[in-house]
UniProtKB/TrEMBL annotation, chain A:
Its main location: membrane. Residues 209-473 form the ABC transmembrane type-1 domain. Pfam families: BPD_transp_1. This is Dipeptide transport system permease protein DppC. GO terms for cellular component: plasma membrane. It is a multi-pass membrane protein. It comes from Limimaricola hongkongensis DSM 17492.
Automatic annotation (TrEMBL), chain B:
It is a peripheral membrane protein. One of its GO terms (cellular component) is plasma membrane. GO terms for biological process: peptide transport; transmembrane transport. GO terms for molecular function: ATP binding; ATP hydrolysis activity. It is found in: Cell inner membrane. InterPro entries: AAA+_ATPase (IPR003593), ABC_Ni/Peptide_Import (IPR050388), ABC_transporter-like_ATP-bd (IPR003439), ABC_transporter-like_CS (IPR017871), Oligopep_ABC_C (IPR013563), P-loop_NTPase (IPR027417). This is Oligopeptide/dipeptide ABC transporter, ATP-binding protein. It comes from Limimaricola hongkongensis DSM 17492.
C-alpha cells in the first residue's frame, strides 16, 4: 500500500480553492473593518416610498464580498467531507478517509440537526439554540464528539484498529503510513500515525472520547447535586447555616486545585482510605437529593410517596453500596455477590476530586440564585399555601434557576474535561494505558519535538470539545436571556 | 414656515408648533421580520402647551417618545414620516446636531428616577454638568442656577440636597431632582414618560402639581405619556389616545373626555371607576377580548374585534384613516363616527344584588407587630432598632363583605396581610378567624383548614405564577395541599371547574404561564386562591399592575366569585377610585395606625380624617365634571423606624394648627366615633369636623 498524503490526488485542486476562499474572506473582513474605522457608519435611511436604503458604496460591496467568500469556504469544506464517498479509497488522502470513517457520525449529526431545526419552535430553550449561530456551532462540536464516542464505544464502529494493540513496525510513524505487514481484513493505514508504542493514534483518540464523554458529565452532575443540595437551604434560610456553609465553600475554593488532586490521588492517600471515605459522603447526596425532591412533591399523597421512596431507597442504596465499597480499599464491607460493579479505583478518585473541586462554586451560584428567587410572589404564594420549605426550594425555586445552571453546567463539563486531561497528564487517576485524551497527551509529549502527531491529535480533540461546550454555553445564555 | 425654521435658537412665539410629528411610522426589526410599533402617527405640540399621550402598555406611546429622542436602539427604525422640532427635521439630522438638541432643547424624564441619575456623583455635580457642557457657563454660575432650580422643584433644605448622593434621597425627591436636571438647560420640550408611576399617590400628586406649575413658569411645552387618564386630564391641554400602534383619537382634552368620538375611547371611560360608578347599579364594563399582538393585528380597524359597533365588510375592508369630527382639530380613526349614537347609555344587562353581609369572620383586636432590625455596627454591636409596622389595629370583617385597606407604602398594610396569612406572628393582640385564635400561630403550625381559609391574590401578575409549571399543575397542587378532592382524577375535574369559574378556557390547563397575558395570569392566581374554598381572601393591589381595559374584567370576576362563595375580601389598594367603586367598608392606614374606618359612603364624605382628605384630593379623577379641592401634602411618609411622636400624621397635617396646644405632637389621638361604625383617629374638635367640606363634588351636568 502507498502512504496516504493529507489530501490525496484531488487535493491538488481542492486545496488552492480553499486557500482562495479563506484568503478572500479574510481580505473582505479586513476591508470592512478598515472602512468602518475610516468613515462614520452611514445610518439606514428611510426613503419616501417607505423602503430602506441599506449601506451603499464601498461598505455594501465589502459586506457582500465577505458573505460570498464565506459561502464559498463552507462549500469547499463540504466538498472535503462529501467527495470521498464518490471517490475510490485514498483519492482525497487522509482527510477523505477520516471523513469516510466518520460516516455514522455525519448521518447522526445531520439527522439531529434536521429534526431539531424543523421542530425548533416546539422544543423550548433547546429549540431556540438553533436561532443562534454560535450556539449551533457549539452544539455541533459537542454532539460530534458525543456521537463519535457512542459509535466507537458502544458499537465499535469508527476506530480502525484496537486502541491497545501495538502493530510491529508502526512505532512513531507519521500520519498516513500504511501497515508494515498488510494483512487482509485489517485497515491498511494508520490514518493519524502511530504512537511510541506503535498503537494507532486515530483509534486511541476515538476510543478516548468515550471515556471523556462518560466521566466528565457524570462527575459534573454529581458536583451539581452536591452544590444544589447545600446551596438551596443556604440561600433560603440564610442566617447562620449560610454563614457556616459559605465559609466551608470558601475554604475549599481557597485550596490550590492541583495540590488537592495530588493529595487525593496519590497512592499513599488512597491506601489510608481518605478518598474512599469522602466518596461515601459525596455519593450520599444524590440519594438525599432525590429523596427530598420526591418526598416534597408527593407529601399530599401518602401511599404513592411510600412506594416511590421505598423504591428509591432500595435501588439507590444498592447502587450506593456497590459504588462506595471497593475491593482493596479500607471500605470493603459489601459482599461481592451483591456488589453490582466495581468502579476502577482511579475513576472513583477522579469522581471525588471533581465533585470536591466543583461543588463549592456550584453551591455559591445556587445560593445566590435562591436568594434572588425567594423574594418572588410565587414563592410567597407557596408559603401562604403552607408548603414545606423543601418543596419550595426544589419545586418553586430550583426549576426557575435552571437557566443559569444549565449554562454553568456546560461550562463546567468543559472544565472537568480539562481537569481529566490534567489528571491524566500527571499520570493520576486513570490507568496509564487508558486511551483518554489527557493520558495520551502525556505519553506523546515526550517526543513532541520529533513526532508531534501523537500528542497533537488528542490535544486538538480536547480543544474542540471544550470550545464546543463554551460556545454552547454562550449560545444558551444568549437565547435564554431573550425570554 | 417663518424664519424660526432657519434659526432654531430663536424663541418661538406661543402657539407656534414646537414639535410636529407627521405620519410617523416606527418598526422594530428582528432577524426574521419587521414588527410595526407605531403606524401613521401625527401630533403637534405648540409652545407652552402640554400634549398627553395615553394608551395601554404596548400601544406604542413610549416608542413615539423614543422616536422623538431618536433613541430607538439597534433594532428600531423610523420607516416613514417626519418629526420636526422647531421646523428642523430630526430624522435626517446629523448625530452631532442631534446630541446638541437632545441635551439642551429636549429633555426626557423616565419612570425610574434612578435610571437618570448617576449613583456615584453628588446631586450638585450632576445638575451643574448640564449647563456647563451645553452652555459653557462657569461652575459658580452653574451652582447658583442649580440652587435656584432645586428651590423651584420645592425640595426642602436645597443646600443639603445638593450635597447628597442620589441614594440618600427618597423616591419622590429623586424624581424632583430628575425634573430639576431636565429644567437646568431650560428646554423647549419636556418629554415625561410615566413620570410618577413608581411613586405613592400623595407624592405623585405633589410632583404632578409641580410639573404643571413649572410648565407655566418656564413656558416649556410637554409631551406627557401616561396610562392614567386622570393624570392626563390634570396636566394636559390636548390629548392623543393610542391603540395598538395608532392614534385613534386626538383633540382638546375637554372634548375628548366629554364628547369622545371613537369607540375605544368610549370603552376605556366605561371601564374605569369614576365617581358615581357603583358595583350594584352602575358596574364597570370591561372591554371584551385582548389587545392584539403587533404581528396579529386584524385587517382594517385595529379595534374591530373588540368594538361594539363593528360592521363586517366596512370596518375590516380597508385601513381606517383619521377623520375630522366637529370640534377644535378633533379627529378620530373610525368610519362610523356619524352613525353611532354617542349619548346612548351603556346597556347594563345584569343588575346585581348586593350580597347580604353576614357574621363576623375575622376579628382583629389590638394587633401589634414590631420588627427588630439590628443596624450592622462595625463589630456586630449595632443597637437593635424597632420598626413599628402595626400599632394596635382593631377591626372586624364580615362574611361577604369587601373591606378595603387603603394607604401608601410603609403604612403597614403588607405587614397586616402577612400576620393574617401566618407568615409573621403578632407581637401583641389577637386575630380570630371564625372564633379560632390564629394571631400567634405561624403557618407551619396552622391546620389545613385554617391555611385554606385565608388565601391571597398577589399584585404582580408576572410574578404570581411559577414560570416553570403548567397552569393546571399549579392549581392541582393547591387542591392537593388543601386536601380537596378524592384522588387525582377528581382533582383534575375540580381544577377544570376552577378554570371555568375564573372564565378561562379549559385548554389553559396545559399552558405555561408565559403564554398567558397579565390579566389571564391574575385569573389563575384568583383560581388558586379560591381552590380550598377560602373564607378570607386578601387581595394585595390585584389589578393595579394590569391595563385599564383588563382591570374592570378582573375586578368584576373577583367580586362575582366573592358573591357566590360568600367570601370576605380584604382589598388592599392605594387607588381610591377602585375602592370607592367596590368596597363596603374602608379602613385607611397611615404609618401602622388605622386613622379612619367606616362604611365606604361615610369615609368618602366629610367629616374626614385629615389624611383621608389629602388622599382623596391626590387621586387623579378622569372626569371633567368632578371638582376637586386642591390639597397638596408636603414631604414624604416618615420612616416607620423613626415615627413622629403623638399623631402619626402630624408632620404633614394641614389641620394641626386648629388643635389647641401641642396636643398633636404629644399624644396619639383616640378613636372618635361618628356614624355607627365610622371612627376617626384625630384630636380635632367636633366643630372643626363639622366644618369640613367635601373634597370631590360632582357638578350637575
Ligand atoms: S371603524 Fe368600525 S370597528 Fe373600528 S372603531 Fe369604528 S366602528 Fe369600531
Ligand atoms: S391629630 Fe392633629 S395632626 Fe393628627 S390628624 Fe388630627 S389634626 Fe392632624
Amino acid at each position: 500500500m502507498e502512504p496516504l498524503s493529507w489530501t490525496g490526488a484531488w487535493g491538488v485542486w481542492l486545496n488552492p480553492l480553499l486557500g482562495l476562499a479563506v484568503a478572500g474572506l479574510v481580505a473582505a473582513s479586513l476591508l470592512s473593518v478598515a472602512l468602518s474605522l475610516l468613515s462614520a457608519p452611514v445610518r439606514r435611511q428611510s426613503l419616501p416610498d417607505g423602503t430602506l436604503a441599506a449601506r451603499d458604496g464601498l461598505h455594501g460591496m465589502a459586506d457582500m464580498a465577505g458573505r460570498a467568500f464565506l459561502w464559498l469556504t463552507a462549500l469547499v469544506l463540504a466538498l472535503y467531507l462529501l467527495l470521498p464517498f464518490a471517490l475510490p479509497y485514498g483519492a482525497l488522502g487522509i482527510v477523505g478517509e477520516l471523513s469516510r470513517r466518520l460516516l455514522p457520525v455525519w448521518i447522526a449529526l445531520g439527522a439531529t440537526f434536521g429534526l431539531s431545526i424543523v421542530f425548533k419552535r416546539r422544543l423550548g430553550l433547546y429549540g431556540k439554540l438553533f436561532d443562534s449561530t454560535i450556539g449551533m456551532a457549539g452544539f455541533a462540536l459537542v454532539v460530534f464528539w458525543v456521537f463519535t464516542a457512542i459509535f466507537a464505544g458502544l458499537f465499535d464502529m469508527i476506530a480502525t484498529h484496537d486502541p491497545l494493540t501495538a502493530l510491529s513496525g508502526m512505532k512513531n510513524k507519521v500520519p498516513g503510513t500504511p501497515l508494515a505487514m498488510g494483512d487482509d481484513g485489517v485497515y491498511p493505514h494508520y490514518l493519524l500515525g502511530g504512537d511510541n508504542l506503535a498503537r494507532d493514534v486515530f483509534s486511541r483518540m476515538v476510543h478516548g472520547s468515550w471515556i471523556v464523554v462518560q466521566i466528565a458529565p457524570l462527575a459534573t452532575i454529581f458536583a451539581f447535586l452536591v452544590g444544589i443540595t447545600l446551596g438551596l437551604p443556604a440561600g433560603f434560610y440564610a442566617g447562620r447555616l449560610d454563614t457556616v456553609l459559605s465559609f466551608l465553600a470558601n475554604l475549599i475554593l481557597a485550596f490550590p486545585v492541583i495540590l488537592l488532586f495530588y493529595l487525593l490521588v496519590t497512592p499513599e492517600m488512597v491506601q489510608t482510605g481518605v478518598p474512599a471515605y469522602m466518596a461515601m459522603v459525596l455519593f450520599l447526596f444524590p440519594i438525599a437529593f432525590f429523596a427530598v425532591l420526591l418526598n416534597a412533591r408527593l407529601s399530599p399523597r401518602p401511599v404513592l410517596r411510600l412506594v416511590v421512596l421505598a423504591a428509591l431507597f432500595i435501588l439507590g442504596g444498592w447502587l450506593y453500596l456497590s459504588m462506595v465499597s471497593q475491593d482493596g480499599t479500607p471500605v470493603d464491607f459489601w459482599p461481592d455477590a451483591l456488589d453490582l460493579f466495581d468502579v476502577p479505583g482511579g475513576i472513583l478518585v477522579v469522581f471525588v476530586s471533581v465533585v470536591f473541586v466543583n461543588a463549592p462554586t456550584v453551591f455559591r451560584i445556587v445560593r445566590g440564585l435562591t436568594m434572588d428567587i425567594k423574594t418572588r410572589d410565587y414563592v410567597a404564594a407557596a408559603q401562604t399555601r403552607g408548603e414545606s420549605p423543601w418543596y419550595i426550594m426544589l419545586w418553586e425555586i430550583l426549576p426557575n434557576a435552571r437557566g443559569p445552571l444549565i449554562v454553568d453546567f456546560c461550562l463546567r463539563i468543559g472544565y472537568t474535561t480539562i481537569l481529566l486531561g490534567t489528571l491524566g497528564f500527571f499520570g493520576l487517576g486513570l490507568p496509564p494505558d487508558s486511551p483518554d485524551w489527557g493520558s495520551t497527551i502525556n505519553l506523546g509529549r515526550r517526543l513532541l519535538s520529533i513526532y508531534p502527531h501523537a500528542a497533537m491529535v488528542p490535544a486538538l480533540a480536547l480543544l474542540s470539545l471544550v470550545l464546543g461546550l463554551n460556545l454552547l454555553a454562550d449560545g444558551l445564555r444568549e437565547e435564554s436571556l431573550k425570554d | 414656515m417663518t424664519d424660526t425654521a432657519t434659526d432654531p435658537a430663536l424663541e418661538v412665539a406661543p402657539g407656534e408648533p414646537i414639535l410636529e410629528i407627521r405620519n410617523l411610522s416606527i418598526s422594530f426589526f428582528t432577524r426574521t421580520r419587521e414588527i410595526p410599533a407605531v403606524m401613521d402617527f401625527s401630533a403637534t405640540v405648540r409652545a407652552g402647551e402640554a400634549l398627553g399621550l395615553v394608551g395601554e402598555s404596548g400601544c406604542g406611546k413610549s416608542t413615539v417618545a423614543l422616536g422623538v429622542m431618536q433613541d430607538l436602539g439597534v433594532n428600531g427604525r423610523i420607516t416613514g414620516g417626519s418629526i420636526k422640532f422647531r421646523g428642523e427635521e430630526l430624522t435626517t439630522m446629523s448625530p452631532a446636531r442631534l446630541r446638541e438638541i437632545r441635551g439642551r432643547d429636549i429633555a426626557m424624564i423616565y419612570q425610574e428616577p434612578m435610571a437618570s441619575l448617576n449613583p456615584a456623583l453628588k446631586v450638585d455635580r450632576q445638575l451643574m454638568e448640564v449647563p456647563m457642557i451645553h452652555e459653557g457657563i462657569s461652575a459658580d454660575e452653574a451652582r447658583a442656577r442649580a440652587l435656584e432650580v432645586v428651590r423651584d422643584v420645592r425640595l426642602p433644605d436645597p443646600e443639603r440636597i445638593l450635597d447628597a448622593y442620589p441614594h440618600q434621597l427618597s423616591g419622590g425627591q429623586q424624581q424632583r431632582i430628575v425634573i430639576a436636571m431636565a429644567l437646568m438647560s431650560k428646554p423647549a420640550l419636556l418629554i415625561l414618560d410615566e413620570p410618577t408611576t413608581a411613586l405613592d399617590v400623595t407624592v405623585e400628586a405633589a410632583v404632578i402639581d409641580l410639573v404643571r406649575e413649572l410648565g407655566e413658569k418656564y413656558g416649556t411645552s410637554m409631551l406627557f405619556i401616561s396610562h392614567n387618564l386622570g393624570l392626563v386630564l390634570e396636566t394636559c391641554d390636548r390629548i392623543a389616545v393610542m391603540y395598538s400602534g395608532e392614534a385613534v383619537e386626538r383633540g382638546r382634552i375637554g372634548e375628548v373626555f366629554d364628547e369622545m368620538r371613537h369607540p375605544y375611547t368610549q370603552a376605556l371611560f366605561r371601564a374605569i371607576p369614576l365617581p358615581g360608578a357603583d358595583k350594584a347599579t352602575r358596574p364597570l364594563i370591561a372591554i371584551p377580548g385582548n389587545f392584539p399582538l403587533p404581528d396579529e393585528r386584524p385587517p382594517g380597524c385595529n379595534f374591530g374585534p373588540r368594538c361594539d359597533y363593528f360592521q363586517k365588510g366596512r370596518c375590516d375592508a380597508q385601513s381606517i384613516p383619521m377623520i375630522e369630527v366637529p370640534g377644535d382639530a378633533h379627529e378620530a380613526r373610525c368610519i362610523r363616527t356619524d352613525e353611532i349614537d354617542w349619548d346612548a347609555p351603556p346597556d347594563i344587562s345584569d343588575h346585581r344584588e348586593s350580597p347580604e353581609i353576614g357574621e363576623v369572620v375575622l376579628k382583629v383586636d389590638g394587633l401589634q407587630k414590631y420588627y427588630e432590625v439590628s443596624r450592622p455596627g462595625l463589630l456586630g454591636g449595632g443597637e437593635a432598632q424597632v420598626v413599628k409596622a402595626n400599632e394596635t389595629l382593631s377591626f372586624e370583617a364580615h362574611e361577604s363583605e369587601t373591606l378595603a385597606i387603603v394607604g401608601e407604602s410603609g403604612c403597614g398594610k403588607s405587614t397586616l396581610a402577612k400576620v393574617l396569612m401566618g407568615l409573621e406572628t403578632a407581637t401583641a393582640g389577637g386575630v380570630e378567624l371564625d372564633g379560632r385564635a390564629v394571631g400567634d400561630v405561624p403557618i407551619e403550625k396552622r391546620d389545613t383548614r385554617t391555611v385554606a381559609d385565608v388565601q391571597m391574590v398577589f399584585q404582580n401578575p408576572f410574578d404570581t405564577l411559577n414560570p416553570s409549571m403548567t397552569v393546571g399543575r399549579q392549581i392541582i397542587r393547591a387542591l392537593e395541599i388543601f386536601g380537596v378532592g378524592a384522588g387525582p382524577r377528581d382533582r383534575k375535574k375540580r381544577m377544570l371547574e376552577l378554570l371555568d369559574l375564573v372564565k378561562l378556557p379549559r385548554e389553559f390547563a396545559t399552558r405555561m404561564p408565559r403564554q398567558l397575558s397579565g390579566g389571564q395570569k391574575q385569573r389563575v392566581g384568583i383560581a388558586r386562591a379560591f381552590a380550598g374554598g377560602a373564607r378570607i381572601v386578601v387581595a394585595d393591589e390585584p389589578v393595579s399592575a394590569l391595563d385599564v381595559s383588563v382591570q374592570a374584567a378582573v375586578t368584576d370576576l373577583l367580586m362575582e366569585i366573592q358573591r357566590e362563595q360568600k367570601t370576605t375580601l380584604l382589598f388592599i389598594s392605594h387607588d381610591l377610585s377602585i375602592v370607592r367603586y367596590l368596597a363596603d367598608r374602608v379602613m385607611v392606614m397611615y404609618l401602622g395606625h388605622v386613622v379612619e374606618i367606616g362604611a365606604a359612603r361615610d369615609v368618602f364624605a366629610p367629616p374626614y380624617h385629615p389624611y383621608t382628605e389629602a388622599l382623596l384630593s391626590a387621586v387623579p379623577v378622569a372626569d371633567t365634571h368632578v371638582e376637586k379641592k386642591h390639597i397638596v401634602l408636603e414631604g414624604d411618609v416618615p420612616s416607620a423606624m423613626n415615627p413622629p411622636s403623638g399623631c402619626p400624621f402630624q408632620t404633614r397635617c394641614r389641620w394641626k394648627s386648629r388643635v389647641p396646644g401641642d396636643l398633636c405632637e404629644r399624644e396619639v389621638p383616640p378613636m372618635v366615633s361618628f356614624a355607627p361604625g365610622h371612627q376617626v383617629k384625630c384630636h380635632l374638635s367636633p366643630e372643626e369636623f363639622a366644618s369640613m367640606e367635601p373634597v370631590i363634588t360632582l357638578a350637575e351636568n
